[in-house]
Amino acid sequence: MKDYAAASTSTETVPVATSGDVVSMRQTVRTLAQRCGLSLVHQTKLVTAASELGRNMLVYGGGGVVRAAPVVDAGRSGVFVEFRDKGPGIADLELALTDGWTSGNGMGLGLSGAKRLVDEFDIESGPSGTTVRIVKWGR
Amino acid sequence: MNTESNTRLLVDTLTARRDDFLAQWARTVGEDLRGRLSMAELGRELGELYEALLRALSAGSLDSHGEEFGETRSLLIELSRNRARQGFTPTDTARSVFALKEVLEPSLTGDADSVRAYLQFSRLLDDLGLLTSEAYLRTREEIISSQAEQLLELSTPVVKLWDGVVGVPLVGTLDSARTQVVMEKLLQTLVDTDSTHAIIDITGVPTVDTQVAQHLLKTVVAARMMGARCTISGIRPQIAQTIVALGIEFGDIPTNASLSDALRQALKEVALDAEDDVRGLL
Amino acid sequence: MTDRVPVLKIGEVLLVSIQTDLDDQMVLDLQEDLSHRIVATGAKGVVIDISALEIVDSFVGRMLANNAAVSRILGAETIVVGMRPAVAMTLVELGLSMSGVRTALNLERGLKLLRRIAAGRA
């Protein structure tokens, strides 16, 4: 997926190192979603997805940086959010994206659930870190 | 001969014979539109456009996408939108712009220099004419999408059937977007009216496929999480057969054959609540 | 984080009204506090009001489900009340159905439901 945040002049950057940071990141994403005119349900889905991905980043990637930006493309407007960590990466992406409850703090619904909540979802993972990019289009 | 001297020539000509050209332009366009627009209004519109063009040319530009033509472009977009609403075709609107070429032609085809200037100017007008077509299309698209949205709202009324019971009669084909709207409206109505029971009646839905069944299931589950009970009624025999044949898991969805059965069931449960209240049990 | 969600006792009922966006530690603390308070007070019911929550993600959803299961073992019934429509739709999409959790539209209906359960009528 294109890095919409790089092209935008109103990109918001939030470092995520504690679970408190996840809360403020959610608020940043919500404010942006409201400004971009997403409906309440769309906002809620986007913020929930951001919460899941932010927590994943914190738990598995040791924290990282979240960037959020408005997107306008072919008459639609939406919100782009990128989650980038420098963790060990995800060994089996396909498995990580499979649905299912895992015991304790496992991968559970985090990735697959977040994917269902947004319109575009892109993940790259390697030994030097994981990057997830999502877009939620407005209605 | 460069752009600069071309624009100077154009500006000189357009300034010197302003009133003459404007009158001719308005006349040509007026004939074209055959009186569907008053001459006064037309004269005002074209006058504004003429001035904006002249100002841009005076700034030395012949690039229709350039900053200098910003004012001209917004005037044209405005004009095109108005014409679209008044029912003119995009051709009518584009020709209004192209007509200025005809007006200028006799005065600018004398010598080689003026011909070059004329050609450049007519290229500029071509671009601007196309811009009106684009704006026209966009306006139409906006009108269509806002109508589609209104239709969506109209086609999904949530009605109160009894104290504590709301219903949605669904008619027609269900798609994702529509189901989303139905879900949102139904669930919000539960909160607003403090209703514990919802009935979705699908008597008017011709077919139920996997996706529609999925959407109905999601609505039922969402309502349950909010503390309400949602029932599907009006399932016709062939739909019941399709559901079984498709192997759709309808397991957890409470269903009733008819709306009246669903309503009776809901009322029974609402009555039970009320009875407990009266008994002073609660 | 030292913020904790208050757990109020009214008769045999524990009332939790979540008013702020919770971070994960607060969620874990709440789960811990609730089970301790159920044992300490001998409460028969718990009402968790989430009407102020703008989002419920899988972490909070799981806490609500776990809490219902744990309190049931400790002899108390949990009712989650006031879930917003947008939140419910999002949870369904996320894949959580919270099937083991009793719910009610609002606090008043939640308390009524608890009394009906206590009277063996629900």
Automatic annotation (TrEMBL), chain A:
CDD domains: HATPase_RsbT-like. It comes from the Bacteria. InterPro entries: HATPase_C_sf, HATPase_dom. Residues 18-136 form the Histidine kinase/HSP90-like ATPase domain. Coiled coil: none annotated. Pfam families: HATPase_c_2. This is Anti-sigma regulatory factor. It comes from Streptomyces caelestis.
UniProtKB/TrEMBL annotation, chain C:
This is STAS domain-containing protein. Pfam families: STAS. It comes from the Bacteria. Residues 3-114 form the STAS domain.
